[in-house]
Amino acid sequence: MQKSTLTGQRLVAVFLVGCILFNYPVLSLFDRVATLFDLPLVFAYLFGAWGGLILLMAWVVERRSDQRTERSGG
Amino acid sequence: MSKKILIADDEQNIVISVEFLMKREGYTVSVAGDGEAALAKIREEKPDLVLLDVMMPKKNGFDVCQEVRADPAFAGTRILMLTARGRDTEVAKGLALGADGYMSKPFSTKDLVDKVRELLG
Amino acid sequence: MLQGPVVIAVSFLYLALLFAVAYWGDKRADAGRSIISNPTIYALSMAVYCTTWTYYGSVGRAAVTGVGFLPIYLGPTLVMTLGGFLLLKMIRTAKANRITSIADFIASRYGKSQLLGGLVTVIAVIGIVPYIALQLKAVASSYDLIVGYPALIAPAESGSSIFADTTFYIALILATFTILFGTRHLDATERHEGMVAAVALESVVKLMAFGAVGLFVTFGLYGGIGDLFARAMSDPQLAKLTAVASGSRSYATWFSLTLLAGLAILFLPRQFQVTVVENVSEAQLKRAIWLFPLYLLLINLFVLPIALGGLMRFAGQGVDADTFVLTLPMSAQQELLALLVFVGGLSAATGMVIVETIALSTMVCNDLVMPLLLRTKTLALHTERDLSGLLLSIRRGAIVLILLLGYLYFRLAGDAYALVGIGLISFSAVAQFAPAMIGGMYWRGGTRNGALAGLLAGFAVWAYTLLLPSFSKSGWLPASFISDGLFGITLLKPHQLFGLAGLDDISHCLFWSFAANIGAYVVVSLLRAPTAAEASQATQFVDALKTTRPVGSALWRGSADAADLVALVGRFLGPVRAETAFASYARRHGLADPSKLEADADLVHYAEMLLAGAIGSASARAMVASVAKEEPLSLPEVMNILDEASQLRSYSRELERKSRELEAATGELKAANEQLLEVDRLKDDFMASVSHELRTPLTSIRAFSEILRDDPKTALPERERFLGIIVSETERLTRLVNQILDMAKIESGNAEWLVEDVDLNSVVEQSMAATSQLFRDKGVALSLDLASSVPLIRGDRDRLMQVVINLLSNAVKFVPPNDGRVTVRLMADNDSLRVSVTDNGPGIRLEDQAVIFDRFRQGGDAMTSKPTGTGLGLPISRKIVEYFGGKLWVESEPGQGASFIFSLPLNNNENGTNE
């Protein structure tokens, strides 16, 4: 993993995005008594962002590794 | 009968000095000022020895030497090459083309005379 | 069916199942078919992070703070994105150095310091004890609840004797079970594959049980997620829980908890154990990076619904929110589900306790007890041959001790806090490892003293601001300690240290402890340069991910005896294992017989690594030193070795780039070489030409001199003629040498130019006068066609005359005698003056027109007689003209004569534009 610096940079980017999404002030935008799809707004936001982040991580990590296998096979 | 020597050189002063030397040694001397003249004189006079300068107008010494050696009729003609471009490659080239000897300018007159004697002896 | 015996029987059955799985896992590992090499199992084992705190406590916290329980899981999620760097580095470093615990990691990094390893162990044990107490409390209270069915509130138990206390027995049972799991092996160095497999299974069980409760509450007790939230939102009190709660204090807490949890996932001893020590291959990490956060998301999905459901269902009944997960099914008479929940909670607790105490016992044994024991003479001498049994006993004793300490804390302070509160105290303690760990992995300058100072300072602040108040809250210390501060000094109030108010307890502790910890670590580290031992370890840790780095053996010098080493390793690993290990080492080095091994630096390093796995790096270093004579390396020597290694590294990195550059350079070189060859050839030609031009007159001079010397009787007229030739050839030689020098001066830019206003008319006239004798001698007519007056130009009069004279003497050389004609013209146009010299000679062949301006290239072959002259006249003339910004060229048709023309610009200010 450490060799593919692109993967590393992508993961750091995901980390930074996560830090911003899960903290003040972005968090405060959703921090009020309201609902979204019958769910409390902040609850829906946090779990939505969290799931999105995990998808992103899986995509970055797994996708990159496929490419590397191809390359090392060639 | 004395041996015949042809001096082929385009430098007038050199010709004068060599002619003087050869005559003093008792040889019969003729002179050519360029490559073509030299070939003509060789065919005409059949000299025993040619003192052949390399850098001559019209035809250089190497070409003259090559043509002479290509003609079996002149197999007995000795050729001593003289050049002012005393590089090893030129020496090798001259000898490869069939010259019998090689002298660099400026030469010692004694060496030249000795060499001529040796070739004609 | 929820009577005590049934619950106990189910619990033991479940534990037996776990044990069977562990046994199977170990068997598979022994057979070489590791089950835990599966990356999913690896990711699930990391979920040991979710303890009863998560299982019961999250709901309790959600019932008070709404989504405030989430930072504990968002922090680890964020850290996992960095797993590719941080965790990978930890894993690789640990494997390279046979590191088996976080204490060992820190001790090893700072020069294999026993003191540091001991301090980390003490902090870890003290910090983790509340966390273990939390598990005991959760299991005990859930047991009390479930056997008290159908009551929803457990009877108060405090004050009863230890032997009537469920919690005490639970602690003993867990200790026994942990010993079975973790120290079943006779050798203490193996990883615990079976334990990991069991922990992974427990992770599945607790997720399923929690999910089952969540589904039951959401869809069984309420009409789905929308219905549940809609009812909760209609209550203003509950609706508040769906927001983080406004105010900067909440966001500060939110941030602190995120940071704390993110550090905990790295530095909790049990996380270090499953993530780093038990890691089978680095490839596993890839899936864990996203699968572990996904697990965290799933197990938290129903926390808020369960909390809201419980709050609505039990409104006003005084049911503890920490128990909602269990009491909700019980209240609905779902006995089976309640039992499943209890088993899930048991899973969460046992998983945590087993892994945590194994990790802690390793630290206590390797970094606390062994160093002390090895100092006492009885053990240091070779009295006891096999110490591997002793190692296991120490670990077993440590496990029991740690669990009893947990129980003690539970008795002293357990009731004062909710589950989460206790857990956060532990998180804050392990967070103190962060500066020494992260600094150690990325900063070479950190020293042992710095790490010691940082850890001590951080730990002291933590103890003062969190641990002691927890005793105070439970009445074990006076309450005035919290309300009035130590000795009644307000500035020393543990929750408002130095008057810092406005933060919650955890954020407050985090701020002060980190300030003290990081400050002390950095400042003390900077007080002195790292020692040789620190520098060599620092490089191994900081450069762990780089491809080439110095192996440990490069940094050892000394002498040892192979048999001593085998015996030493045998004492701690057991003789059989030691011999197997050395035999395989010998095979790798191409030796059939291990007894022929040479005790070189490699072997010593290998022995130390084997020992490090068993007793920790610091003790291993001390043990090896007891049998091997080490010549300590000085700091400059270590630096040299490290420099070489880092040079090697940068070489290899640059090699690729260099080879690309080389390819390009090769192409350029080829072109340059061809150019050089051409230049060389030209230079050779030039030298040969110069040689020829010098030798020719020398030949005549020498020949005539020798003639005159050898024959003094030469006739007088001949003598005079010969002497005349010598003199004229000498003049020729002089001319030639002058011109060569002239040429060289001009070309090298060293020529002197006397620049003034020049009338070109007069230059031409004077030149004609200078050469008139030549014309008269040969009977050549010279005519002049001058413009009446021309502007003055800047130039060197003598040099320009040199050009005109050269052109004139060339012309006269080539025209036929007697009817030769040469015409000189001077014309002016708008911006230049032009001089032409035209003759009626044979002309110059087109192919010769270009080369006659080259040095020693005379228009030769076509002419009947060799031209006199040096062959440098025209090249020099051209240089002069070009120096003044002009041009010199020839126009000619064979048979029609030739014109040499030069033009000079009028506005050529001063001098050469062509320098």
Description:
Chain A has a domain at 26-65. Helix content of chain A is 73%, strand content 5%. Chain A is built from three helices and two strands. Chain A has helices spanning 5-21, 26-29, 41-73; strands spanning 35-36, 39-40. Chain A has a two-stranded antiparallel ribbon. In chain A, helix 1 packs antiparallel against helix 3 (41-73). The radius of gyration of chain A is 17 Å and the shape is elongated. Mean pLDDT of chain A is 75; it is low at 64-74. Chain B has one domain (4-120): 3-Layer(aba) Sandwich (Rossmann fold), CATH 3.40.50. Chain B has helices spanning 12-24, 35-45, 61-70, 88-96, 109-120, and strands at 4-8, 28-32, 49-53, 78-83, 101-104. In chain B, strands 2-1-3-4-5 form a five-stranded parallel sheet, with helices on both faces. In chain B, helix 2 (35-45) runs parallel beside helix 3 (61-70). Chain C is mainly alpha-helical. Chain C folds into four domains: 4-66 and 123-420, no CATH class; 550-633, no CATH class; 669-748, Helix Hairpins (Orthogonal Bundle), CATH 1.10.287.130; 756-905, Histidine kinase-like ATPase, C-terminal domain (Heat Shock Protein 90, 2-Layer Sandwich), CATH 3.30.565. Helix content of chain C is 67%, strand content 5%. Residues 860-867 and 910-915 of chain C have low confidence and may be disordered. The chains are: A mainly alpha (74), B alpha/beta (121), C mainly alpha (915). At the A-C interface, helix 1, strand 2 and helix 3 of A face helix 4, helix 10, helix 12 and helix 14 of C.
SSE inventory with pairings:
The complex is a heterotrimer of chains A (74), B (121) and C (915).
Chain A lengths: L4 H17 L4 H4 L5 E2 L2 E2 H33 L1
Antiparallel strand pairs in A: 1-2
Chain B lengths: L3 E5 L3 H13 L3 E5 L2 H11 L3 E5 L7 H10 L7 E6 L4 H9 L4 E4 L4 H12 L1
Parallel strand pairs in B: 1-2, 1-3, 3-4, 4-5
Helix pairs in contact in B: 2-3
Chain C lengths: L3 H27 L8 H8 L5 H14 L5 H11 L4 H11 L5 H8 L4 H34 L18 H17 L10 H29 L3 H10 L1 H4 L8 H20 L1 H9 L6 H17 L2 H11 L10 H8 L3 H41 L1 H4 L7 H26 L5 H12 L2 H10 L5 H26 L6 H5 L20 H23 L4 H11 L15 E2 L2 H12 L1 H14 L12 H15 L1 H11 L1 E2 L4 H76 L5 H33 L7 E3 L1 H19 L2 E6 L6 E3 L1 H18 L6 E8 L3 E8 L6 H6 L21 H11 L3 E6 L5 E8 L10
